[in-house]
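Researcher: Good morning. I'm working through a list of sequences from a screen, and I'd like to move beyond sequence-only analysis. For each chain I'm collecting a predicted structure so we can compare shapes side by side. This is the next one on the list. No need for commentary yet; just the structure.
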Amino acid sequence: MGPAILFPQAAPLSRICLGGSTFGREVDEATAHALMDYASAKQVSHLDTAATYTAGASEKIVGAWLASRRPAPGTMTVATKLYPPFEPDPIDRGVAASAQRLGVETIDLLYLHKWDAGAETPAALRALDGLVRSGRVRSLGVSNFNAAQLRRVLTLQRELGLAPFKALQNCNNLAIREVDAAIQELGREYNLAIITYSPRGAGFLTGKHRQGVEKGSRFDVAPGHQSDYFQDTPRRRLEKLAAVSARTGLSMPHLALAWAVHFPGVSSVLIGGRVPAQLDEAFAAVAFDDPALFAELGSD
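Model: Good morning. Structure tokens for this chain:
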């Protein structure tokens, strides 16, 4: 699909988005700035961070880069995320704090970071609508919602005449698949930009953890998602990936990335990392398109 445009006069979302979850954790400010410089030079027009990434440090690092590099208006979309509770006062305070850390008057794209029952209350949705109408936020999105949750909030926004969510960000890779047929249908129905993250499964799909968690890796530093991946279905999918890699001579990380960036209906894929070479791997995956091979990899 073509580049998604979330709001007028905004940069279209590039196929690759630089994710900032490692900024201030595995990646220091100087290294993060070098990554953003490299991404910008390669026409990446989408940066992603969140208030919860390293207790706001990631937003501050992105904000310092924006202040020093001053990208031209309309050339970069910067997204951040708001954590529950989704109630008017916490929403207001959270947006103010994120804008201050980013050093911006207007947040380009604001996600609700995870599902919470407060997301489908008229009070929360009206508060979010007010942020758009006042110019504090340009566009709204949600992250880590399933199809039923997403449909309920979109329906309520439509019934109340409120600014709608225009983007969904979910995990989607060969091991863990959270962009299903129902999500794809909602994307078409509501003209949503679908953004996915963790295309290599936090390193799981590189094969480096087949004998146990590698020391110093993301699973080691931030172990919260280990229980999602070290299960029968993801392991079975990993072994299929390994078999296809061995047969074709194409590396496991390359195949996993290519499958994710060419997934139907996806506008942009978040790539994190520590060095520019990891972005180059993503660009190579965009250039590699083999629908038959992707169908085989995703056939279970």
